[in-house]
Design brief:
20 helices, Growth Hormone, Chain: A
């Protein structure tokens, strides 16, 4: 059930990426404006609301929180399909971000209660693989519908399933706190932390700080620069919207799904022997994937680009999602949703909010000198952030053992 909720989350989020070019043509806006609506408009309320919702999730009914959030972001995605101006669309995307602030942190908190530590990496890998399915739906189905019926129809397709899912979530999703109210009350009596204590406790952990920096620099790419991949394919490799969405979307989704599930399985096996592998696997994945992504963006042939992107996505998605299991190892039982929300707050505000805006602005700045090639060099430069991520995740692994907390 959480997988389906997360799929809806990422479907509504990623469908914007494949719609940027038709939106640009209709409203006649710059790449900087596309970066604003593709990133900052969504990220603003997502980041602001994430922490208070997470504190609620660390003590409240997570099932109710998830159902409410699902209803809000699905309704606002539908609203995107009825907008008539660029700024109306920007406001609607703010609403989508506000709703999605209540999705991932409460869901990961539930998963940590559902599964013991030695099974969490695989469980979280299955959960995070929903981002791949959402990406496939947004990039593939969304692009196909947009090509045939217009970009507004793609938003309607993305929003409707979430509204249908709300009632099922509210009626069927288990909430362990309701089932074990008495024992939980006894086990946490006198130990409840304030929000300030939780934040300070997490910040004092060196490993958590390294994980946070690694996630921010890594997610600058999928949340930021990679929003412009459909534009890159259409402008520089001269493929159609349908070809870009169907071929590239399908291939990378399969690669991501294979990498995520394989990475979760490997991490659970290695993590039982040494918890540091939960951080070292992401470090190795970033280090290996960086040159492959750079070669992909340097390619002039669509087939070469797709092949390299397949390899890079297998590598990166085989390692990076494991970071979530590592964070749950060090955060402590009463800070699970808060720890996830801090990472999401930072990555959404910096990576998701500033990433597309910075990418679009750099592309616009280089265009007078490089023409259409400006976007290619911008994406190659952004990929270098994977090296910074690898360094941070390696440092995470060196400090994680001293910060382990049940």
């Amino acid at each position: 059930m959480l997988f389906l909720v997360s799929t809806s989350n990422y479907f509504d989020r990623y469908v914007m990426s494949v719609l940027l070019e038709p939106i640009k043509r209709e409203f006649r806006v710059s790449d900087t404006a596309l970066g604003l609506i593709g990133g900052f408009a969504f990220a603003a309320f997502f980041a602001v609301l994430g922490l208070p919702i997470a504190r609620w999730a660390d003590s409240g009914n997570r099932r109710t929180i998830i159902a409410l959030a699902l209803a809000v972001w699905s309704a606002m995605t539908l609203a995107c399909g009825f907008t008539l101006t660029f700024w109306q669309l920007a406001v609607a995307r703010v609403g989508v971000g506000a709703g999605e602030a209540g999705a991932v942190a409460p869901a990961q908190s539930l998963i940590a209660d559902y599964f013991p530590a030695e099974q969490r990496a695989m469980a979280l890998a299955i959960f995070t693989s929903a981002s791949t399915v959402g990406y496939l739906l947004g990039f593939g189905a969304g692009g196909y519908i947009a090509a045939l019926y217009g970009w507004r129809s793609a938003f309607l397709l993305a929003g409707l399933p979430g509204l249908l899912l709300v009632l099922i979530v509210r009626l069927t999703l288990p909430e362990p706190r309701l089932q074990l109210r008495a024992s939980l009350a006894q086990s946490t009596q006198g130990k409840t932390e304030s929000a300030r204590q939780a934040l300070v406790g997490l910040w004092r952990k060196r490993s958590f700080r390294h994980a946070l920096v690694g996630c921010i620099s890594f997610l600058f790419l999928p949340y930021g620069a990679f929003v412009f991949i459909p534009s890159f394919l259409i402008r520089l490799l001269h493929v159609s919207l349908i070809q870009a969405s169907a071929t590239y979307g399908s291939v990378t989704a399969v690669a991501s799904l294979l990498g995520t599930l394989a990475g979760g399985h490997i991490a659970d096996r290695l993590g039982r022997q040494d918890v540091r592998w939960f951080a070292w696997l992401p470090a190795g994945a970033c280090l290996l994937a960086a040159p492959v992504f750079m070669l992909a963006f340097a390619a002039d042939d669509f087939r070469v680009f797709v092949a390299l992107a397949f390899v890079a996505n297998v590598l990166i998605l085989g390692g990076v999602p494991v970071v979530w299991a590592a964070i749950h190892v060090i955060c402590g039982n009463q800070r699970r949703a808060t720890a996830v929300a801090i990472v999401l707050f930072s990555t959404t505000l910096i990576s998701g909010g500033c990433g597309p805006l910075a990418t679009g602005a750099l592309s616009d700045a280089l265009t007078p000198m490089l023409g259409a090639e400006a976007l290619r060099y911008t994406l190659i430069a952004a990929t270098g952030l994977l090296i910074a991520s690898a360094v941070s995740f390696h440092r995470f692994g060196r400090t994680i053992q001293s910060d382990v907390e049940a």
